[in-house]
Amino acid sequence: xxxxxxxxxxxxxxxxxxxxxxxxxxxxxxxxxxxxxxxxxxxxxxxxxxxxxxxxxxxxxxxxxxxxxxxxxxxxxxxxxxxxxxxxxxxxxxxxxxxxxxxxxxxxxxxxxxxxxxxxxxxxxxxxxxxxxxxxxxxxxxxxxxxxxxxxxxxxxxxxxxxxxxxxxxxxxxxxxxxxxxxxxxxxxxxxxxxxxxxxxxxxxxxxxxxxxxxxxxxxxxxxxxxxxxxxxxxxxxxxxxxxxxxxxxxxxxxxxxxxxxxxxxxxxxxxxxxxxxxxxxxxxxxxxxxxxxxxxxxxxxxxxxxxxxxxxxxxxxxxxxxxxxxxxxxxxxxxxxxxxxxxxxxxxxxxxxxxxxxxxxxxxxxxxxxxxxxxxxxxxxxxxxxxxxxxxxxxxxxxxxxxxxxxxxxxxxxxxxxxxxxxxxxxxxxxxxxxxxxxxxxxxxxxxxxxxxxxxxxxxx
Length: 462
Fold this sequence. Notes:
Jelly Rolls; six-stranded mixed beta sheet; transmembrane; hydrolase activity, acting on ester bonds
């Protein structure tokens, strides 16, 4: 028997080898598809894909798109105020509609407002007897309407020689912040004073002296007092009103003053009464209250009791608070330490007014020009510039408004010119009624200029 079974056919062995080589090659090529990209000499080799001709085409990816840049809103140019030549600008540091002078300006333009626009002017002897304020009030009321002098204390004192109204009183006991005894700051009203009646009857008669047209008559006489055990209030010829017992400030309003006079009587038979004053005003227009006090630097404005101020805010809203002080602090305002300490009191006062009168406008008025004698003659006191700078910084930090009284008077050295014209006293610190009239005209033009800027700004959409 032959041994053929042990010897394979050579043709069959050759075919098998070919198939094995092809299969191995195919497998290697398939594995090569999964190799990472290979680069030689900076050139990337093409990926091996033996199935590319028979594999279904992969769905094409949408082409990447670059998003359009966001549309830029047109940039508005910063608002630029315009002030007429010769008009002293009111620098407004308020940043929105609730700060600076915006609230006050908006109400001056509000034809639907059903109450007066009220200004509370806090100052020192610069405005004693309605100096400057009588004329400023007259100009504002001529432009925007309004009647009466506004606030009048229950007894004459600081304003006992007003150009506008005079008073006669009986039965009251006066307590003011400048009094050294029998004064309690926890009891004072917005004018930094209060008046007491232990029992019986007290009266205050007020009558115009005809110096200013719009202040010589008024539509309403309103009395403000506290009567813990109740009280009877009457105005001659206008009736009477019974106030119930209450620890809070109350008001009694009468249609009296059209003839330029009003006689108020307050009576109590049980307990005491603490009165603050009365308001002589019209139903609309502008009311300017003179809340000045002779001899004070202004520290005590911040001490007006919160409960009393809250009651007055409820009964008699205020729209612009003006703070003009410094005349009685010039001699001591020589160091930065004192000036910073001084400004801290006004920061407290501003915070208090804003707390009780939301949105109220605040205007800081820089100290007036004041002169002293030196070896070279009369010179403006160097403290004027220093204090004015601190007052302007105060306005900026508190987002209030600022105007320079020295600038309203005509700048440095203006007091000497006022004295030469007979517009100021020879102490070179206090103006008189003629000087006050000149300053009032300038002040009025500044308010008008500020209002015009406000109107144009709103029209332009700012």
